[in-house]
Amino acid sequence: MRIVAGSLRGRRFDAPSGTATRPSSDFVRESAFNLVGPLEAAEVCDLYAGSGGLGLEALSRGAASCLFVDSSGRACATIEANLARLGLEARVLRRDVITALSLEQRPFDLVLCDPPYDLDPARALAPQLVRLLAPDGLVVYQSPARIEPELAGLALTTSRRYGSARLTLFQH
């Protein structure tokens, strides 16, 4: 895996071993950030972070900070190792995503959400995302291509297929 663009372009990072994590491909990550646009000084949250690839990409592209959330100890250890290797500092929280969000108070300009494809947390996530998303913020929600997610209380701005994945953007 590698960073696609920004100050760390071309630098490599690891994904947790095993099949529990499905890292986003370079193409899907690049497509997501092309849809999002500039990230200068953005406060970012990477949910179901896995390898941390989406959040690492955001930091490389100028985000001010990133909160990485994953319930897996193996994933969190991999994210911490990737941050150290890339010379980045960020908060890594090992918790269930819903619990982690319920404890957060600060708003996020960008929330990156890439849940396991066998999980559909959109209904449970929606109230927390509505509460934590900054007024001009965006949620990028990755799902299987056949599924069009809905986040009650947020407006769908675009939904596009990229091979077997779908990227859906939401805002207030």
Sheet-strand content, in percent, reads 25-35%
Low-confidence stretches are none
Second CATH tier, the architecture: 3-Layer(aba) Sandwich
- When the domains are counted, the total is 1
Tell the overall outline: globular
Structural write-up:
- Helix 4 (97-103) runs parallel beside helix 5 (122-132).
- The longest helix has 14 residues, at 73-86.
- The chain has a single domain (1-15, 24-131), classed as Vaccinia Virus protein VP39 (Rossmann fold, 3-Layer(aba) Sandwich), CATH 3.40.50.
- Strand 6 (155-162) and strand 7 form a beta hairpin.
- The chain has a 7-stranded mixed sheet, with helices on both faces.
- The radius of gyration is 14 Å and the shape is globular.
- The chain has 172 residues and is of the alpha/beta class.
- The chain is built from 5 helices and 7 strands.
- It has helices at residues 26-36, 53-60, 73-86, 97-103, 122-132; strands spanning 43-47, 65-70, 91-94, 108-113, 133-144, 155-162, 165-171.
Task: Give the key terms.
30% helix; alpha/beta; seven-stranded mixed beta sheet; 172 residues; 5 helices; globular
